Structure formats: C-alpha cells, structure tokens
Structures
1.
Amino acid sequence: MEKTKLQVFIKPSQLSRRIKQLAADINHDYRNKIPIFIGVLNGAFIFMSDLIREIDVKCEVDFLKLSSYGDSKISSGEVKTIKELNCDVKGRDVIIVEDIIDSGLSMKYMLSQIKKHKPKSVRLAALLHKKDVAKIDFKIDYLGFAIDNKFVVGYGLDFAQRYRNLKGIYVL
Ligand code: IMP
Ligand code: MG
C-alpha cells in the first residue's frame, strides 16, 4: 500500500500501551458486573478487538452500524442506523466502543438510540476525540487520546474505506 502521503501520528506501541490502561480502568469499574460492549462499525472493529482482549471481567460483545459520512472527510450531519443491535440491552450495563468522536453527532444519535432500550447504565469508550471541533454534551468515560483537528486513518479508521488495515494511526 502507498504510504507516502501518510504521516505517522500514533504508533502501534503507543496504542497498545494506552488500550491496556483503558482496559485496566474498565476492569476495575466493572468488577462484579457483566457489561455488554457495543462496537460502532466499521471504524471501531480493531480498537474493540484489542480492548476486549485486555478485559478480564465477564462480558458480552455486539456491534451496530451507523452511517453519516459517505466518502467525504466532512460530516454530512445526517446519521442513520444501518445495522441494529442483536442483543437485548434492557437492564444491562452497556459500554459503547467508538473509534473517534469528531462533531459528536454520531455518538449523540447512538446514545439516544441505546437509551430507548432502557439499559441500566451506558458508558462510552472512544479511542480518539478531536477536542477542538465541537463542544460535546456527553462524557467520554474512557478516552484513548485527545487529538487536534486532523483527519486520521489506520487502526480501523478509513478514508473512503481505505487504510483501515494499518497498524498505527496516520495523518492523511
Ligand atoms: P462525528 O459524528 O462527527 O463525531 O463523526 C464520527 C464518525 O466519523 C467516526 O465514527 C468516524 O467513523 C468518522 N470520522 C470522524 N473523523 C474521522 C477521521 O479523522 N478519520 C476517519 N474517520 C473519521
Ligand atoms: Mg465510526
């Protein structure tokens, strides 16, 4: 794959170190609970798989899929559910796993959808947050890295569906 236009942003070693720390926090907070991790497809699939393997409390996993961006770098502001949940989250402790919070619109929509199913609790784990883009009105309980407003790819994150397979995170 052509990597010439890509600039290293977060190395695989930094990702794995940080993810171990997030998992340690989750393991501590959810001891004696059985959380359901809900990953947001497609972007969160690699973060989810690495995070979940550091979790040592009993847990379940599901995914849902939203769409908003098409193949553009700028959010269309319109969010839809493409794949619904398969699990019943009523009365359960839910941890949403997302790759990146940019405008926060996708997560706002996602939280409203999940809360309709009356979970006992909902927390959010996000690998990245573009901290200067927008003021978000929800809390990111487990955040990997707060980053500047740059378009990043790799480690699950794409541009026009490409680059998800890269082991690190790069600025495009
Ligand atoms: P938001 O609704 O603006 O917060 O956008 C969130 C979604 O847009 C994320 O789940 C990503 O799928 C995508 N996204 C936002 N910023 C980037 C980026 O820098 N690289 C790749 N995808 C991004
Ligand atoms: Mg996403």
Note: Helices lie at 12-29, 45-52, 105-116.
2.
Amino acid sequence: MRLTIDDVRSRFKKHFNNEEGSVYASPGRINLIGEHTDYNGGFVFPGAVQQGMIAEIKPNGTRTIRAYSIDLKDYAEFSIDDPAGPTASHFRYLFGVAREMMKLGVAVEGFDTAFAGDVPLGAGMSSSAALESTYAFAINDLFGDNKIDKMTLAKVGQATEHNYLGLNCGIMDQFASVHGKKGNLMRLDCRSGEFEYFPWNPKGYKLVLINSCVKHELAGSPYNDRRNSCENVAKACAAKHPEAKIETLRECTWDMLEEVKGECSEEDIKRATFVLGEKDRVLAVCDALERGDYETVGQKMYETHYGLSKDYEVSCEELDFLNDIAKECSVTGSRIMGGGFGGCTINLVAEELYDNFVKTVVPKFEEKYGKKPIVIDVVIGDGSRKLC
Ligand code: GLA
C-alpha cells in the first residue's frame, strides 16, 4: 500500500493539537551491483525507489523532540541536549541526525514530529537510511537555511548509524536516498565521492525484488565483522606496499592478496576475495550497460550472489533458494541485495518470463518455508524532498 501525505498529516494533527507542520520524504533504495564495496572505497550502483518515509515536522520552541511513530504507534520525548538520547532505535535515528546536524553548526531546536513509511522493514531496502535522510533534509531546511550540501546530509545519516546505532555502514544507502532521481540509477565512486546519473531503461527487462521476509537487522549482525576483515587485509597489503598508499581494498590487487595470504586469517582472505571480485564485476557491468548487454549484467549478478553466499557468507538458506528458483526460471540475473543476512533478492528478468517467474517462485517458496515471499516491482523514484 502506498503511503499518502494525508495519512501522515491527519495523524500529526490528531497527535499534536490540530497543528500543521512541513512535510518531507526520502526513499529507500535498490542496488544493481556493487555490494559491500562502499566501505572498501569501491563503486556502487544504486537507485532510489518509490517506497520511502514521510515525516511531518513543526518546531515547538523548546529543546525537546516530541516524536510519534505512526507505524509502531509509539511516542517519545527526548531532549536534544542530553547525549544519552532515547533507547528505542526508531527514535535514535532522528535523535542521532539532530545531534550530528548540531555538530555541523546547525542551530537545531526542538520539534514535534510524526513519521511513517512504506519501505518494508528489514528487507535490505534501507528503511533506516530513508528515515535518516528525511530528518537530515528537514532539519537542514527548517533550521539550517539549506546550507548543508546533499553529500554532507548523506554523511550525517551514515554518522548516525555509526555513532547512535553501532553499525559501521558505508555511504551507499544514505547517498542513494538523498540523491535519487526518477528513472535513473547512480554510479558512485565511494572513494572520491564523484557520481553520475545513469538513465535506467532496460528495454525488454524488469527489475523485481523478492522479499524472503527473513528479517535482516544489520545492527548487531556480523556486518561490522565483515568490515573489520576487509580492513585487516587492506592493512596487511599496505604494510607490504607503502608506495601504493593503500587505505582500503580499493587499492589492493589480486597479486597483493596472494602475497598476504600467509599473514591474514583464511576467513579474512575469503572476504577480501569477494570484494576484489566485486570491484571487477561492477566495472564489467558498467561496460555491459553501455553496450546494452543485459545478459552479461545478469551473469555478473549471479556471480555476486555466489560470492556473497560462499565467500562473504552473508546469505541464508531462503535467499539461496530464491536464487536457485530464479536460475531455474531462466531469470537473467539474480542476487542478494544490500547487506545480506535476510531481506530481498534483486532480479533482472526478461519481460516475457516475468509472469512465469512470479507464478513459480511464490508457491515454491511458500511450500518450502510456510510463508509467501513478497514480490516488489522496482520503480526508480526521486530522492529527499519537501512535499509541502
Ligand atoms: C548495507 C549498508 C551499506 C552497504 C550494504 C552492502 O545496506 O548500509 O553501506 O555496505 O549494506 O553493500
């Protein structure tokens, strides 16, 4: 069900004495390829989706945020000056964003807010980035004269994850949510921050997500361990090659990886093997897209799935099953999307095979796991914005 502004407005009114504030929205995201490459200084290929978060906000002239989560029917009040902040994670996102904006010199004040979203939670579609971006954008507008640039707003969301949720994520999700543009994917170089829009119009193909509904919670998951493994290997390569000025796996080569095999744990080497392969795949996909060669794009997606499952070990039985069924249905490309440990697969499917795929995968999954997976057609939408 698509979320409407009116829903949020009426709940805000009801909760806050018939008042009216400003309304902002930010989307979730998909990612065509380039997984776990962002914190390794590599490339990613995301796009914003139509599903997102909507928040109504009105400054209340105090130092307190009074926040109502419409979806969770949960309310909290917390001071922006108390560093401890609220305990519930859905409120910590907005508290963290407010605090990070204060660090940037924005004169944040207290506000009343109600928020809701239609990005499925824990599906790997970045509902949390959508929430962070909504508040970063809104606070910049309401208290900061819009002086903070978009990339910095994305970094505010990322810093919120690091400092208030304990997840050492990369920049992809918040970047995509803030910068999204209807009909376009974005190719971001996470080392330099440079990016370009890439019109996404794959004639004859569709992108569809299949949500396994295995809840993925990255905070508290081994996501941070994966990042540590990558950093260990990058450090080992840097020690051997000071001339290469290695900061992340982006600067490491296959030869270097071979050289440090004896010094790093087998597990760390496996993780780095995936990341080096993924760097190559992203570039291959960019070339293939320029030629309109979607078969190669799809093949790379399957390779990414294999690597995420076997070397990076962020898959689960249900996601591997969805990938197998996609293969059986001759889907062009299929893989885990996002951080892993549950959530969705993203599938590039020829239009004429779409119906058969959906008709096959849903009952087969249900028969095996006792619950229906959710089919989500991807429509690439806009990034953070003020609605009214
Ligand atoms: C999560 C993180 C991102 C990125 C992906 C994996 O979505 O928030 O920064 O690392 O996982 O590509």
Note: Residues 35-36, 38-39, 126, 169-170, 172-173, 218, 338-339 surround alpha-D-galactopyranose (CB under 6 Å).
